[in-house]
Amino acid sequence: MEESTAPTSKKGAKKAEAKAKKEALKAQRAAELAAAAANVTLEDDPAAESYGDRRSATSLLFSHAAEEVEIRSLNESHIGKTVIVRAWLQNSRVQSAKMGFLELRKSGNWSIQGIVMASEEEPIVSRRMVKWVMGINPESFVAVEAKVKQPLEPIKSCRVEGLELHITKCYLLASAPSMLGMTLAVANQPIVNFSDDKAPVGDVQADKTTVPAASMLTHLDNIAMHKRSPVQQAIADIRIEVKRLFRSYLEDRGFKEFEPPCLIGAASEGGGNVFRLPYFGEEAFLAQSPQFYKQFEIAGGRERVFSIGPVFRAENSNTARHMTEFTGLDIEMEIKESYTEVRDILEGVLLYIFRGIQERCADAIAAVQSVYPSEPFLLPEPGKEVRLTFAEAQKLLREEGPPEFANVRDDEDMSTPQEKALGEVVRSKFKTDFYVIDKFPETARPFYAKIDDTATPVGDGVRVTNAFDFFARNQEILSGGQRINDAVELEARIRAKGVDPDSAGIKEYLAVFRSVGVPSHGGGGIGLDRVVAWYLGLPSVHLAAYYPRTPKRLSP
Amino acid sequence: MEESTAPTSKKGAKKAEAKAKKEALKAQRAAELAAAAANVTLEDDPAAESYGDRRSATSLLFSHAAEEVEIRSLNESHIGKTVIVRAWLQNSRVQSAKMGFLELRKSGNWSIQGIVMASEEEPIVSRRMVKWVMGINPESFVAVEAKVKQPLEPIKSCRVEGLELHITKCYLLASAPSMLGMTLAVANQPIVNFSDDKAPVGDVQADKTTVPAASMLTHLDNIAMHKRSPVQQAIADIRIEVKRLFRSYLEDRGFKEFEPPCLIGAASEGGGNVFRLPYFGEEAFLAQSPQFYKQFEIAGGRERVFSIGPVFRAENSNTARHMTEFTGLDIEMEIKESYTEVRDILEGVLLYIFRGIQERCADAIAAVQSVYPSEPFLLPEPGKEVRLTFAEAQKLLREEGPPEFANVRDDEDMSTPQEKALGEVVRSKFKTDFYVIDKFPETARPFYAKIDDTATPVGDGVRVTNAFDFFARNQEILSGGQRINDAVELEARIRAKGVDPDSAGIKEYLAVFRSVGVPSHGGGGIGLDRVVAWYLGLPSVHLAAYYPRTPKRLSP
């Protein structure tokens, strides 16, 4: 078939009504086929062995000469050859009683056109076989044997445009139901509602000529179809590449991976947003970050470490930026001379990631853009990275930002609206969506942040820290900086922040710094989901997660 | 110095009493030095700028020509050159008022001898400086400037035997306390007691001539020193390599990484050993395995996936084999023709890991063996992998195992003592510590295990499954097999196992199989901590974890 179900193609955009009719027709056809199949014998149908419901398809079913290939690996060298292909039947269209078209899909978005045509010559394809194949429900898993041919014209609706499969055998390995909870076309539309509310939101149809779009709830209730959509396959592939680039950049620079625990004995970093659970008669907590454990690795002589793993926030925030469980990419390293060594490694790894996915995931990024269009993500030219001090950033916001921020102070933390406004100013002034805000005032950082004694205080005499945030498209993706490595200084800061140095968790943390000499060190934590979501300009971080966790959603 | 603190060297084994005396002397010396230092002025000491407590050491403190190097990177090309080295001061020994020896250590177990000798020629080293350097507490972090020279004889006590550092500057960057909670020598002794009981166990000294050994509790209470020990550095490095080999083998074969959630909405896989927690007015659970989510990835068209992440068991088992949180290495893949495709990938990845670490981590393995000696881990010759069916294994145990297992049945699960006895038989018969037990009876497997309809039932007519366990040194390290992929078959098995298909978690799981066609698939889960621990023959899996979690221990 040459119509496409991709939402960007007008030709392929079918009306919802037509779809419903088609589904009904298919169901009817399937019922007829089931009735007919019960009476089929070898005498009735010379092709009876070439199709049917088989559950598993061993090589015995196929021709000896047929080679099993993946759709993504098919190329011109296969023309004229007989191949075996396992794939999802994405769509089918009856041309006549003797002929029908299929779309087969595998490996994310690798689709190819299949043709099944009645033939009285070997290999025999009966009309009954054509009818049976055309009755297979979309999103069923099939194995076909086919001859690879060159189509008369490129098949625009399929990723493999220059080849088609002339099917001579077709076995149904796993059948989808006749009515899917969400079709692939709908699954590949932009999500219209990210609310977690259980109240029925209804899936909307923008206008009668387009494929209807669904809510995030419908997507999650149809998790398999959600995942099968080309846009989600592309996002998942990009996410994998981000992790891979993170790891390889750091390993090349001597960083060693480690696994911090999730279960911890105390709500050590501020008790507000922490999950608590009963633990053999005591209480346990879920780690909000690997912060303390990264520092223990440094104290333990591991020099440069990174971790990739889940972190938890019991925050009742139902926004597109929040999840209760997300993946942290964390690093910690010894500092030789200056905390800028840490800042440079973190800036380096993020630029490596952004440039790496631009290069390696161009197709996947294009697939995402086709569903969720966004402005290209601007990166600074090498050597022209944008690093503003907190005070410089606030000045920029006062002078060039919107009027409501004309009086922002250098000694108070930025709000989310301020961050967004600053991002706009930075983008138009420096032509970058990625930048660093450095030297945060101590009021805006936790007790372990190292104060810069050499810097001039800001605002009402507030000291600044060797700590920074990184931003992507106006939103924070990383927090980091130098940590206090001296036990005496650390205890003083803990007290100054109003925390009891003898409280659970803090006591054990301080004890490590007292127990041995700990060298200067620093690090940072990156939110993987946010990096993926904001780089791609997605409307919600939930789209970048495999199984988003929110205050109202724990399944699937 | 040429004495070694390594426990294998008799020469270096110091008496505990001598140690205590030395500590007392050091403390006294440090006090004297502190008093003296208060009066030091440039006039008093021509070398005053060349040493001292600096907290941070910028390049301004060092000679322009000095190059900063890592101890592990030092080689003959550095002889005669002036270098800057940052390292832990591992030990020091005063030779005279004019001369002393140091051991410096970095990057795990890379140690080198340092010499500080009074000199009136440039660069000037004063007697006061020698005394001050000798007073630095062991395990402090220092930066030294030194000339690299060739020692008269190889320094057997250091890993870098062929070089020594003639120190001309020495700055203390982070001071250890005068009395460590656990010395490095003790930290590198085999742990004598793995009990988690809070009752004082006391750290024992086997006899008066050896370095005393400590309990696991003492190790965990001194986490930084525990980690700094060469044996723990080696175990951590081996663990990293296991993960890296796992990932690279699978990525080369088209597997894609994903992250299953830890927080789940239902105790889906048997409710006994699951942690529960309050979740915004509802209840949440911590995942016991990524099983369901791996299968959702297959249903979602991801074809071949793997995950590396934490799993949780609320099991009150205080043994050397159990932890409440551990790292799972999981895979799941589509099956084309047979579940043996899954078995072969899993066997392949484990052999790749075992052979890979033997090759890449020879030094680290030797370091572990020097503390925890064990029989070499035997691997099968390529093509001679040992795969027994469950029935064959039980037969072997009946016929060649100890008499108490003369009546084990083919239709009942193996106990841990049975597994151990079988491992002994397999090792002596097949000369391997790694083997597969396949075709477990359905009574011993969860509801999702696929039954082999073609196999003869065992025992009292119990059917066998396409499921297997892998063993290393008699202990299970992997469970895997083919899963049921048809919703009707799955529901029937769920019912047959006495589980309500409408119960929380199960209902949503079944719904996925009903919602789309899911191809044949299978997979397995490997316990990373166990693979490391049993490969190395460690006495407890807790030694292979970074921060072991047990029913009685959640810190550090």
Q: Which features would summarize this protein structure in a list?
A:
alpha+beta, aspartate-tRNA ligase activity (chains A, B), EC 6.1.1.12 (chains A, B), five-stranded mixed β-barrel, OB fold (Dihydrolipoamide Acetyltransferase, E2P), aa-tRNA-synth_II (chains A, B), 3 domains, cytoplasm (chains A, B), disordered N terminus, eight-stranded mixed sheet, homodimer, ligase (chains A, B), 556 residues, BirA Bifunctional Protein, domain 2
Form type of chain A: elongated
Specify the biggest β-sheet of chain A. 8 strands, mixed
For the record, the CATH architecture of the largest domain in chain A stands as 2-Layer Sandwich
CATH class of the largest domain in chain A: Alpha Beta
Distance between the termini of chain A: 35 Å
